[in-house]
Request: fold
Amino acid sequence: MRYMLECKDKEMEGGSMLTLEFVRAFIGEKMFARGMQEYTEANVFNMEITENDEHYKLITANVQGEEYYSVHVVNIELSPQNEWITKMSCDCEYFDYRHTPCKHIAAVLIAYVKRDEAQPEPSLRKKHTDKSFKEFLSSYQAHTSNFLERPLNIILEPEISPKFRNDMLEVGFKIGLLNEHLYSIQNITEFVENLDGEKSKKYGKSLEFTHTLQAFHPRYRPLVQYLVDYVHDETSYSLYQSIPGYRMMYAADLPRRTITVKSYAIDIFWDTIQNLPFNIKESYGILQPYTLVDGQPSMSASIEKVDEGYQFHTNVLPYITGKKHSYFFDESRQILYRDVRTSQSLRKLIDYFYSAKSENIFIGEDDIATFAKNVFPILQKNLTVQAKGFNPTQYLPEIPTFEIYLDMPQDNLITGELFAIYSHGKYNVFSPSENAVNRDLFFEKNMEYFFSPWFSAYDPTNSRMALTDDDDKVYRFVKFGILEMQAKADVFISESLKKLKLHSQTRISIGVSVNHDLLQLNLISDQINLKQLNEILSKYDPKKKYYRLKSGEFVDIDENIQALASFKDAMNLSNSQFTSSSIDVPAYRASYLNQLAETSILDIQAKENFRQLIRNMKDIEDIEYTIPQEIEPILRPYQKKGFRWLYALKENHLGGLLADEMGLGKSIQIISLLVAWKDRKRALIVCPSSLVYNWANEINKFMPNMHYTMISGFANIRKELIRTSLENDILITSYDALKRDIDIYRTMEFSCQVIDEAQYIKNASTLAAQSVKAINSRFRIALTGTPIENRLSELWSIFDFILPGFFGSYQKFRTNYELPIVRDHDEFLEAELQKMVTPFILRRRKKDVLHDLPDKIEDVYYGKLEDEQKDLYEARVQRFKLMLQKQSDEEFKENKIAVLAELTRLRQLCCDPHLIYDHYKGNSAKKELCLDIIENAIEEGHKILLFSQFTSMLDTLTEEFDKKGIRYHKLVGSTPQRERAQMVESFQKDDVPIFCISLKAGGTGLNLTAADIVIHYDPWWNTAVENQASDRAHRIGQTNVVNVFRLIIKDTIEERIIQLQKEKSNLADRILSGEGVSSATLSRQDLLELL
Reply:
């Protein structure tokens, strides 16, 4: 195993370039002396010096070992400019064991420092091949001499013993030179081992050779390879199973003279030897040469009329059956016939005739009919059959026709009688003993098998079938059974059974008109009255294909009934409403009804005043609502459309779900609505705690003059902020804070209520969901970037917020929509649900609304330190300030490294205190923010690049991914180049959603266009480097808009560095790289301002 030693604490003292004095101090006196000896003896060679993208120098060299064949590889990394030794490795045992610099590393460092000087000449002493390797090479000469003696044409001849009862072969082999004496192979396992090891073996006076595949005649090599593969397959070749108390024994443990070829492998074996000579051991133990022939074997039979019966004679061949073929052994001709696999019925006959050991069989008159019906047709199809005085048709019975009599003697009882009709009479099929000799009972039995399953029981008293108390069977009987019986027989139906009707294609008409501010519905059915129709719908089960009325009649649950059931549930109509002459429903159902009129199979008769209402609603949606001048120029076209949609909903006293894909700017569309709403009172925005500051930042960015209040802090502070809020204020709070302050909010009224990341209320039983629904708000909007088509409980809860009562209770929604759609994949109900919600959902995807070249949209997401994390950060800042304040300018310059280390620790505290404090138990604001963004992005189907400068932070995040079952790739500095390339190629094709990358390891040189979201967990202050990392995704080949998110903790060094980037970009660039700290241009005062 090779190790790479990272030298974190080895800084150079003195000059900025590597010197021999530093190497001596770094390596140690003793190891330096040994390295100097290696260098002086010219053992360092092939030294290459390269520079990577970060300007680190990479030194690679070889050092001659003590043995001539021993060469060691040394790798050393030097930092830019000052040439600190940052990494080193050697593949020698000393470094591998101690992980400290060895003489080879010392020699390479000396050679690097002295690279511009004249190099020592290598020694001229002659070196000899190592003794053990020379002996190894001699084995090749021995093999070569064997092959040079003479060309070999060795053959392998199979000797086959068929085992007919078990469908398998026992095969032995003889070996020898072509046209010379052959020797039996006594141990097949040893033979294969000799081939594996290319060993030599003597079989007799005239045969000794080195075992290789090339030693065999080309025609025989497939058979040799077959034998090798067979022995290597332990499953096929194992002869012994484990016995308690004894070790497992395998074929290799004992001499093996034969192999066993079982039925499933016989075809492959014969394919292998079909062009080779082979011998078969016949029934008397004599080996005879056979020929393999494809085709049907010659087998015959004859039957002749004799006194009191018939004499039957047959000539069949023994056989073995493989997976595709049957093999017949003809000893008289010494031919093996390979035919297509024979039927089970023929094999049954051949097995009997062959085992009977007699070719002549007498058949009496009493049994000839059974023979003629069951045996003779098989023989006639497969053998050459001669018949003398035998006519099989005279023994076959007449084929009957059938009559069926169906009756319903009483309610819930249907009876059925089945009769076979012959020229000589009519017989009840359920009385087979009556004149059985002259009836085709087999044919009758097949008809009985068809007839009986339509019923539930047999009535032995009346020799008939009965169907009782089983609605499912009665429905199938009436709808399908009678028709299928009529196709096979003459069916006679009683008048009482004819009254059992089946209604199908039920037609319903729905009249729609406007009555003041409500819609009025009128239902008309031409076949079933509304009371019966309501009876069907009140017990509607989408799994059932019918409904049985109280009258006993059946109604097909066809597409009309299904559509009406969906309509009733969608409109939340009660049973009493449905059976009344007219039904009043809310006006917001107008869009749904209009869609039904255009697309549904229901017959919806819209009155003129309803059509006028629809026209008015469409006109309202097309009104060009005025977008505020201060925000109009920065809105994209689709965002302007979103603004008009929101405003139209507000004007019509409706609610909506803005479900634009992540990164399309849902917040700016809400802000534009709040700005344009002139008579607006208080507005409430509820979001996850990680986004509270982000909403405030968005308002500041787009509408800095619009007043808002963040409701955060301790309970008494939050209450005071709510109490003192302005009449038209925008309150921004978290779901968690809202739950705790709900008693205050209940007393207030809001013009507008917005909930962000609306999936937070997907569980309607949570306090978060109950709290947002308890707010008194006139206009409600939900925001989410997550598709919700497959999470219908979330859809219900969101609609219960934006349009209370829209779907009724959740239990009703679950029964009528969620379970049928999700569990049963009911496409009809899914389409119905889509019609209902479409007017109140606006969802756009980037690929649909951004038609120009893919943009790179950059956003900053803010989090805020709280609780223990905040205390730790503030304490560290105070400590750092005290350290800086106590230092003189000279001391500050001398402690540059300590200052940089302290800055790094502050940044790590912003990332996650676990990076510094192993026993930290609290939360991390940025980690929670990051996980929220990632989970939402994954749900939307995005792929993500996650950059961090700290590999330990990537480790922490991937631990969270493991807990959540999120798959990822991870690339850090120690990742080998080949593995890097494999990961990149895999990420471009697979469905792994996250690629975690340390910024130094993967900031450049990677093409990762499969990703369309880039997250900078801890931003690199040099924006050029950060942009290079982002451009791993935003580059040629990218077809999607790329969102770049930078995660920043407010009121910390991170936020102040961003401010410095704008004001003093050069200074900001220097801070992270360390150049600023070592430069005189960065003063103590600059650092104090950052804190």
Notes: Confidence is low (pLDDT under 50) at residues 8-15, 142-150, 234-253, 1064-1081. The two ends are 45 Å apart (CA to CA). DSSP finds 42 helices and 46 strands in the chain. The first strand starts at residue 5 and ends at 6.
